[in-house]
Specification:
The structure holds 3 protein chains of 3 kinds. By secondary structure, chain A is of the alpha/beta class. Helix content of chain A is 34%, strand content 24%. Chain A has helices at 52-60, 99-103, 105-110, 114-127, 143-155, 173-190, 201-207, 242-256, and strands at residues 10-21, 24-36, 41-45, 67-72, 75-76, 84-87, 161-165, 193-197, 210-214, 221-226. In chain A, strand 7, helix 6 (173-190) and strand 8 form a beta-alpha-beta unit. Chain A is globular and about 55 Å long. By secondary structure, chain B is an all-alpha fold. Chain B has helices spanning 2-24, 36-48, 51-83, 85-98, 103-114, 118-142, 146-153, 159-196, 202-212, 215-243, 251-257. In chain B, helix 2 (36-48) packs across helix 10 and helix 8 runs parallel beside helix 9. Chain B is globular and about 70 Å long. Chain C is mostly helical. Helix content of chain C is 80%, strand content 0%. The radius of gyration of chain C is 22 Å and the shape is globular. Chain C starts with a helix and ends in an 8-residue tail after the last helix. Classes of the chains: A alpha/beta, B mainly alpha, C mainly alpha. Chains in contact: A-B, B-C. Chains B and C meet through helix 1, helix 4, helix 5, helix 8 and helix 9 of B and helix 2, helix 5, helix 6, helix 9 and helix 10 of C.
Chain lengths: 259, 260, 251
């Protein structure tokens, strides 16, 4: 799961982001060093509004850093790319396209012929348990289903990296657990590198190999924790493990009194 | 059932009021205000000798042309204004100046430059229709959720392609609100243009009838153009409902807000 | 930031420059499109003509009176519609049916019924801008958040007083939005009606110039009227913003 430290999949060094507003310069990120190895599941937690989403958007190539380096496979990030799929928390799906229309979107972009698009889309629709909803519009779907479609839409591109911006935050607790488990199952199979932003410590510890704890705005890395819990993880069982409780305590205190 | 009744009752009311006023001679004698049946007879006459069709089609053609051009220019330019800061800044003074200008005051200039034929009427209709579309498109496209665009970009859509594939569809509800207003603008522009200086068309029919005191023809012209406008508007709403079938607004909400 | 600040001025300069050069260079016929500087000169001339100023006064009076009457009728009607479902159900179809009618054209019928006097000329303005006023008043009154009304009632405001203490102020942004449109439509309607039946007013003045082939004057008048429309709109926005500092967003 870990790769040699000299060959990270994603790497940032001294990353800074400053926003120019009418009231002057507002720093959002202040020197972030980040590393994720190929196939790793890394979470980023931090206080609300600390800039963790901004960091993700920089990794996605939607926002440009003001200073510092951000590379994927050693190549600086130049713009959005299907190799770096992204799943947002909301406003994700194209409301004017059906479920299948959304899922197959990226393939259509790529010029994949219709029959193959349909076949592949069907596979991912089944994978994400969306069978029967192919012709539905996003407005007819529940929050959890929408996120499933969003995941399918990104995964169908077979990305090396999956960026997730609090994808389950807008979903009820029950559905969230289901989605988390499905995500892990898929990740175990595909071994995509995942960068997962969340404000839920439990979620981060349940899902990840490592957790970055950021400070409040402007964001800096407070600490990086190894989540050494054995896989596969049972969401209820791990709550009892002393290692888990220790990690939870540590992260919690870092978030409560960020420095 | 009540909805259909409510939709129809204005026409019934108008007809009844018209009949009453004409019968009582309130607004003038039979010449000044012919009763509806007389106007109907005249309309039939005009239809039979082909004048109504000729004039009606002339007006319709101009309206559709003006509207089509306004849609192209309005959505195209509006999207650029809404999405490209440079364009917005560059065009803002021109748009802000021209938008509140009464286009009818520019019509004589159009007549001089484009002559007395169809071109000036289409230009007038275009000038009335393009601004509501332009402004609605600029507003709608500038308010598209960035994460929607980013999702598309992350799936391989290039920047310019995203305008067509994401931004415009997402802004469609707003655009169509402006487009509805623009439809009436196009009709008014063309009709008035024909009235002020035209050789054919419904507007010209009304203006000539006024001058030659063929009063019944005046009523025929205004009723036909109003009815035509009403039908075009209904058609628009149908198309809009289809186009926005995916929209999160409830069907009934679309129909209700379909008023305005 | 700095470079793009010049963009608006640049495009205006470009447009005016084109207007100046094109006729002089022969790209367009000078008889059809007089150069910008010539038009400017004529504008100054026209503005000094007492005949024009008189016409302006006539048109302005019709515009003002028509607008005022439309407000007087439309505002109460629209706000009542916004608070009464029955009234809305009754009136709304009338608005929908009347909406596509080219109202300025009705001036010919008005003249037929009432002669070419001021009554017809003012009535057409009322008819022209009534619908936008009613619609925007309706929307404003309709969308008052119940929480606002209940808060007021819970603090002792009686049923009737909520009209001017809550509903009208809450509806104000929408109403002012509609008024802005109505102002422009009223200007349009005055001019259109005067172009059609002439007699007096800026529209008549314009038609005469057109009829006499005075291209330069026509362009000058068009420019003046466009400028008036622009300035009135500008002034309106400024007055609203100054007079109601609590207003959020655009009018």
């Amino acid at each position: 799961m870990t790769s040699s430290p000299t060959e990270p999949k994603i790497s940032t060094a001294g990353l800074r982001k400053v926003y120019e507003t009418r009231r002057g310069a507002v720093p959002a990120i202040d020197g972030l060093d980040f590393r994720a190895a190929a196939g790793e599941f890394v979470s980023i937690v931090g206080p609300s509004g600390c800039g963790k989403s901004t960091f993700l958007y920089i990794l996605g190539g939607f926002v440009e850093a003001s200073a510092g380096e951000a590379t994927v496979d050693g190549v600086p990030i130049a713009g959005p790319d299907p190799a770096r799929g992204i799943v947002f928390q909301e406003f994700v799906l194209f409301p004017w396209r059906t479920v299948v229309g959304n899922v197959a979107y990226g393939l259509a972009e790529r010029g994949v012929p219709r029959r193959e698009r349909a076949a592949r889309a069907r596979r991912y629709v089944d994978l994400m348990k969306l069978g029967g909803f192919e012709k539905h519009y996003p407005k007819e779907l529940s929050g959890g289903m929408k996120q499933r479609v969003a995941l399918a839409r990104s995964l169908i591109m077979e990305p090396d990296v999956l960026l997730m911006d609090e994808p389950f935050a807008a979903v009820d607790a029950q559905t969230r657990l289901g989605l988390q488990q499905e995500l892990l199952a898929i990740w175990e199979r595909l071994r995509t590198t995942v960068v997962f932003v969340t404000h839920s410590v439990d979620e981060a510890l349940y899902l990840s190999d490592r957790v970055y704890v950021l400070s409040s705005r402007p964001a800096r890395v407070q600490e990086v924790l190894e989540v050494d819990l054995p896989r596969p993880r049972d969401p209820e069982a791990i709550l009892g493990l002393p290692a888990y409780r220790e990690l939870h305590r540590r992260v919690g205190s870092l978030l409560r009194a960020p420095h | 059932m009540t909805r259909a009744l409510l939709a129809v009752y204005p026409f019934a009311l108008l007809l009844a009021a018209w009949w009453l006023l004409a019968a009582q001679g309130v607004l003038g004698n039979e010449f000044v205000m012919p009763p509806p049946d007389e106007v109907w007879e005249r309309a039939v006459e005009l239809a039979e000798d082909g004048t109504l069709a000729a004039d009606g089609l002339a007006t319709l053609r101009r309206v559709l042309l003006a509207y089509g051009l306004a849609l192209l220019a309005g959505v195209g330019l509006g999207t650029l204004i809404g999405r490209v800061r440079g364009v917005r800044l560059a065009l803002r003074p021109l748009v802000s100046f021209l938008f509140p200008a009464p286009k009818v005051a520019l019509y004589p200039a159009m007549l001089i430059v484009l002559g007395l034929g169809s071109a000036s009427k289409v230009a007038f209709g275009f000038s009335e229709a393009v601004f509501p579309i332009l402004l609605a498109t600029a507003a709608g496209t500038s308010q598209v959720e960035p994460r929607l665009v980013w999702s598309a970009r992350a799936l391989g859509t290039s920047r310019p392609a995203a305008l067509l594939r994401v931004v415009v569809p997402a802004a469609l509800p707003t655009i169509l609100t402006g487009a509805r207003i623009a439809l009436v603008g196009a009709i008014v522009g063309v009709f008035l243009g024909e009235m002020i200086a035209g050789a054919d068309g419904l507007g010209q029919m009304m203006a000539v009838a006024y001058r030659t005191l063929e009063t019944a023809d005046m009523y025929v012209a205004i009723v036909v153009v109003s009815l035509g406008g009403y039908l075009l508007d209904r058609l628009f709403l149908l198309v809009r409902a289809r186009l926005l079938a995916w929209s999160a607004e409830e069907r009934s909400e679309i129909r209700r807000s379909a008023r305005w | 930031m700095r470079r793009t600040d010049a963009l608006p001025a640049l495009t205006v300069a470009l447009a005016l420059g084109l207007w100046e050069v094109a006729p002089r260079a022969g790209w367009v016929r000078e008889e059809s499109v007089p150069p910008f500087s010539d038009v400017c000169g004529e504008v100054v001339d026209v503005l000094g003509q007492p005949a024009f100023l008189g016409a302006l006064g006539d048109s302005a009076a019709r515009w003002a009176v028509g607008l005022a009457l439309a407000l007087l009728i439309g505002l109460p009607l629209g706000t009542l519609m916004g608070r009464s479902r029955t009234l809305h159900a009754l009136i709304d179809p009338l608005l929908v049916a009347g909406y596509p009618v080219p109202k300025a054209a009705l001036i010919l019928l008005f003249v037929l019924w009432w002669g070419a006097g001021e009554a017809a000329r003012v009535a057409i303005v009322v008819v022209g801008c009534l619908i936008p006023i009613v619609i925007s008043s309706y929307h404003g009154a309709h969308a008052v958040p119940p929480a606002l009304l209940w808060s007021a009632r819970g603090l002792g405001t009686g049923r009737l007083p909520t009209w001017w203490r809550v509903i009208l102020p809450a509806a104000l942004p929408q109403i002012l939005s509609g008024l802005r449109i109505a102002i422009a439509i009223a200007i349009f309607t005055v001019l259109a009606s005067e172009l059609l039946i002439r007699g007096s007013g800026v529209g008549a003045y314009l038609f005469t110039a057109l009829d006499n082939g005075q291209t330069l004057t026509v362009f000058a008048l068009s420019t003046i009227v466009a400028a008036i429309g622009f300035l009135v709109d500008l002034a309106y926005v400024a007055v609203v913003r100054r007079g109601l500092p609590w207003l959020e967003g655009e009018v």
